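Protocol step 4 of 6: structure prediction from sequence.
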Amino acid sequence: MGRKIVGMLTSYQGLNQSDWLWQQTPHSCGVWKNIQMLKNAPNPDFLLLYQYDFFAPPSRKSWRDRFLKPSPQPVSLTAKDLRGVPPARSIYLLREPPLAEILHKNQINYDAARAYCDYVSGPEEAAPIPDYMPAIWYHANSFRELDQMPPPEKVKPCSWITSGINRTENHRKRLAFLNQIQQSALEVDFYGRGLPQEVRSGGELKNKWYGMAPYYYNLAIENYADNDWYVSEKLWDSLLAWCLPIYYGGSAADRLLPPGSFLRLPSMDETGMAYVQEVISSPEAWYAAKEAIAEARQIILHKLNLLNWLSEFVEARS
């Protein structure tokens, strides 16, 4: 049959590079098994709509207005956008969590996507096809390096890479927990963009690897933890850096990863603080989980990988 070309359309700002996902395969130019990921291909065989928003960007400039208030003016895809790909070979994957503040936006996207894609999915029960999000990650390391490397040298207890976004109730709970840790004596190093000035932060990282690889543990706290579908790159990034994640999220991770490959943060309060303190006081839990982490990394790289998901989808539709 020959290799199939997968193009991509997204609303994520900054995702304009032609080599999107190429670091997630050991082969050159985005090749994975029976597919090649070419985001800007003019005549692809399949088209991935990856968190494409079917509404015009709000004219107001504040983050809160852009996040909470979709434009009432819907956006339609043009023939140029679709590049000749029929609905049977078009895929819509929504990645945003089903936070209460944006459920209306998610529904706009699901309803509109049905006109262009036979397969419309998202990590929530309201999606036409509820499913977990295939894995992407944000390390700049090559696939071969991640696949074959032994654990890097671990020299520090724990890190947390997050942001100062506070536009939803869940974001604000996470920031409150961050402030609790900041005011305590816990040995947690913070990195990320837009963190409050009072936070002693190492700043924003271009490559998350440097804020994870030297650490035994990593706080991986999702923006949403209340269903059986949502799990994001926060967990994949942590494991691929050979950290033992202290994870706060829904039950999807339990279905996707082997037992013992991550720890569960019980809550974002004093109980959670005590748990973090107990775990990171010693590298013992990391050593006990080392084999499970290695197994989880292979599952992420070879099975949960979005390129592998696309390959299986293409095989089923070809």
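Step 5 (inspection) to follow. Residues 284-304 form the longest helix (21 residues).
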